Amino acid sequence: MAKVFEAADASNLMTELRMSFDAGVTRSYEWRVSQLKKLQVICDNHEPEIVSALHDDLGKPELESSVYEVALLRNSIKLALKQLKNWMAPDKAKTSLTTFPASAEIVSEPLGVVLVISAWNYPFLLSIDPVIGAISAGNAVVLKPSELAPASSSLLAKLLEQYLDPSAVRVIEGAVTETTLLLEQKWDKIFYTGSSKIGRIIMMAAAKHLTPVVLELGGKSPVVIDSDTNLKITVKRIIAGKWGCNNGQACISPDYILTTKEYAPKVIDAMKQELEAFYGKNPMESKDMSRIVNSNHFDRLSKILEEKEVSDKIVYGGQKNRDNLKIAPTIFLDVPLDSLIMSEEIFGPLLPILTLNNLEECFDVIRSRPKPLAAYLFTQNQKLKERFAMTVSAGGIVVNDIAVHLSLPTLPFGGVGESGMGSYHGKFSFDAFSHKKAVLYKSFIGDAAIRYPPYSRGKLRLLKALVNSNLVEVFKVLLGLS
Ligand code: NAD
């Protein structure tokens, strides 16, 4: 039987990792590279085990596991290995007359010992991607994978233990008890991925130690469809981003569609046609869609689906089977705004379509709700694209596709407001786990008496001119001109 994780274990873990960090184990470029290369070996040599664990936990199709988890991780590692020297190099900063002569720079300093708590839906990507950032930035790190994806959690623990430096990188498996014990420790950063409900618990625990947090949360990500669009491609991309990404159990999955009353019938027809082309006449039999993660989530989705005013509005799908945890892609038309399906994040294969009089009303619906993690618009109208990007607030915005912003390391990935705080990916991951330290180097040359007492009107005038970088005034004072 596995040993129970207790308060003393959490405290010993912290002491050990803190000792490694304080001894400088994690700081060198060489150590960071060696650990990143080990993560690369994990991706290269263990892909079949990863795919199999994801199949056990979620019935995730091989393509989704190989591409959206392993290949994305490989890219992150490759980029970090290529850029690490640049990221670690201090950034030169400008100086001014007040500090002359001097030089200044911004040094990216590791924070210390950090905690990464990840979620079950993309258990490898969401665990290892932040760890890449933590290691790149020179931190010691503890990863707590989600207990709701147990095969992935134990494989992560096994592989990280086998390959990475145990003096500075550890995996602690477990659920609420273990996480609560971990949260009692004083971390230098907590990086949490999961629901906003638990996000609040994490932030409260962090506040006790003034620990900074990154909260990668979720929310209801809307999709607006304009009638001036390529409907066939629009619908294919929505289906791929919804049911083709872990069967809707993804944080940036389309949560609901907004379109006009006149255009909705066309959207529904196109969705039916493409869904059948993708998943066949009986999608419950399709091997190309994940199942629901567990019976709790199946029951949660069933409750949303079975609400009277909602189940009446099904225009496609609705089949489900608790024995194999499958729910078919299900589309609803004009469910009430106060129904469960419109009140909470769906996180599953259900997709309501809401119709309004025009697109401005669609935008208003988004603006009137908590800020989502992603917001999508399909249109060919340039003015509309710009208005959407400038006036709708969301963690990220994609025009004419779904979820693909996540694959661009040049874009920060994270939420705003209710969908989270902080961001990562590419250099943003490195920055998320670094302290940007201000460093100013001065010499003993040019020691100006005007900054020292006894103060005088002349000194005051000259200092003010210097602080304001007013060269004309500086010369006037020096030349004794009024
Ligand atoms: P989850 O149940 O796996 O929980 C996430 C983590 O929180 C787990 O490690 C779990 O052990 C821990 N946890 C659960 N209860 C806790 C408690 N009481 N105290 C301390 N820790 C606790 O995942 P979830 O919350 O169901 O994940 C789904 C949510 O995550 C959705 O809202 C989704 O949108 C969001 N999400 C966001 C992202 C992102 O990148 N922004 C990615 C994936 C999921």
TrEMBL record:
<dbReference type="InterPro" id="IPR016163">
    <property type="entry name" value="Ald_DH_C"/>
</dbReference>
<dbReference type="InterPro" id="IPR029510">
    <property type="entry name" value="Ald_DH_CS_GLU"/>
</dbReference>
<dbReference type="GO" id="GO:0005737">
    <property type="term" value="C:cytoplasm"/>
</dbReference>
<feature type="active site">
    <location>
        <position position="216"/>
    </location>
</feature>
<protein>
    <recommendedName>
        <fullName>Aldehyde dehydrogenase</fullName>
    </recommendedName>
</protein>
<comment type="similarity">
    <text>Belongs to the aldehyde dehydrogenase family.</text>
</comment>
<dbReference type="InterPro" id="IPR015590">
    <property type="entry name" value="Aldehyde_DH_dom"/>
</dbReference>
<keyword id="KW-0520">NAD</keyword>
<feature type="active site">
    <location>
        <position position="251"/>
    </location>
</feature>
<dbReference type="GO" id="GO:0004029">
    <property type="term" value="F:aldehyde dehydrogenase (NAD+) activity"/>
</dbReference>
<keyword id="KW-0560">Oxidoreductase</keyword>
<dbReference type="InterPro" id="IPR016162">
    <property type="entry name" value="Ald_DH_N"/>
</dbReference>
<feature type="domain" description="Aldehyde dehydrogenase">
    <location>
        <begin position="20"/>
        <end position="439"/>
    </location>
</feature>
<dbReference type="InterPro" id="IPR016161">
    <property type="entry name" value="Ald_DH/histidinol_DH"/>
</dbReference>
<dbReference type="GO" id="GO:0009414">
    <property type="term" value="P:response to water deprivation"/>
</dbReference>
<dbReference type="InterPro" id="IPR012394">
    <property type="entry name" value="Aldehyde_DH_NAD(P)"/>
</dbReference>
<dbReference type="GO" id="GO:0006081">
    <property type="term" value="P:aldehyde metabolic process"/>
</dbReference>
<dbReference type="GO" id="GO:0009737">
    <property type="term" value="P:response to abscisic acid"/>
</dbReference>
<dbReference type="Pfam" id="PF00171">
    <property type="entry name" value="Aldedh"/>
</dbReference>
